[in-house]
Amino acid sequence: MARRPLPRILSSGTASLARGRDFARTAADSATDVLHPLLVIGRGLRILAAAGRRRWSETPKDKRGPALFLGAACVLVVALVPYGPLLALMTIMAAAAWHGRDRTPVKTGPSEAEAERLGSLYEALVPYFSIPEDPSPLFAHGGEWDKAFSGYEFDEAGRLTRLHIRYPAYFTDGEAASRARIEALLHAKSGRGREYLFDWDEEGNQLDLSVLAALPTGIAAQPFVTSPGESVLGFTDSVSVQRTLPVLEGEQPRDVPPVVWRTGPRSTEPHLLAVGQPGSGTSTLLRSLALQALRHGGDVLIVDGGGSGEYACLSGRAGVLAVECGPVGAVATLEWAAQETERRLIATHRAREAGRPAPEDTRRPLWILLDQPSVLAHLAVAEGGPDPMTHLQVPLRHGRPAHVTVVVAEQFDHLEVLHDAVWQHTRARIVLGPASIQQISDVLGLPPHTTPTTLVPPGRGYARLGTGPVHRLQVPATPDPYDEATHPAHRQAVLELLPERQQGPGPAMAKAVGAAALDAPERP
After folding, report:
1. Fewer CB within 10 Å, N- or C-terminus of the chain?
2. 123: Cβ contacts below 8 Å, ≥ 6 apart
3. Is 418 or 40 the better-scoring residue by pLDDT?
4. In what order do the strands lie in the sheet with 206-211?
5. In this structure, what are the phi and psi dihedrals at residue 392, rounded to the nearest 5 degrees?
């Protein structure tokens, strides 16, 4: 199937449209500021005219004649008085400005229900932010909450959406356990089911709490505007990264902040580990990475340990060397990958010794994607064969200079089966699906700055690249196109990204698979 070219609106028009919208918005704001006095006077004149018409309609008919005579006499007197018309015009304009002013009531403080909620939250924090030795405690039972809370905001349902807290300097905010207790309490008292961001200012003894908006789930797989060596893991909050990508969400173009993973010889996080529960979206992540790697001209090896057939759409495609589901094929595939890594290293070393650039075939990216390898390891041991994961150590340890990238997706229940080499060399980590803070910390090395929720859409989780911060993540929707239970538009988007089919696997892979099949022990 032919590849769909990148829409023109994504490649060149988005920036112009954004600049045009900003210019129009700035011009409208400036015009509103300049014309604001005229708008106020016009509104006041309409109010005065409406009041005059109402007063005239309420006047009895027998009194309208004397009223007209009195009005005409007043106009004549004003016309004869020096500067009378000018003073009358100024009086009318002043009255119009007074009646046309903005009379929207300004909210000066919280409502009774909001004040009660803030007081309850203040009382709940007293045991954590006070000690008996403090002569003038900021937090005390029956104290004034407005001295500790500021900058609060509530939604239409009366739930807290933002809060600025001052706390005493003796609070141990440098300890993760102390911060975790405060965050858990604020999460429970402010309303569960939402994701909160906690920004601790340890130097100023201040804490900012804010409710985060849900990440977009309608962005499907598409040709992202990235350079070779860059892969879009998903999308995050605008405050987390300083880059945006033009994408299509349905039919609407928009700019969203991505989490970009860089691979290759200069990458500090050359391999990735994704962990989640069943149905959390790890297979979706692997399909998304495979399609991006194929688009940039890479070779892909897929080992489906679960045997669910979710990668059948990639089988036989150009650039896909193999899609293996059994232990024999997995052993052969990973053994070939280890030998290919060694071959690339030797060829690159010899070329550099001779003063020549590395051969072209050694610079072609090779992606090894493993989904639930623990299942294959268990089957291989049960059948008396070798563990396929033993052949993965060479690509993990030496894959970076050989342009070899390894991505492992595993479930929480089988993490103890993973080899030490996987934990040591997968410096890019992702956790998808519902997980506790402890589980996220065990995988990523740091707890998230937000409160995880129990109900999340597929592909929703957290990502951390190396020693960087923890980002919220929403993987682009990349379902199995052969699964009719998924969204039709998302399935069609994946089909349009698939490369054309080829006649069979490459000669190197066919030879490796055939040799492994001959050496495999016979099954009873």
Report:
1. C
2. 141
3. 418
4. 149-154, 160-166, 206-211, 196-201
5. -85, -10
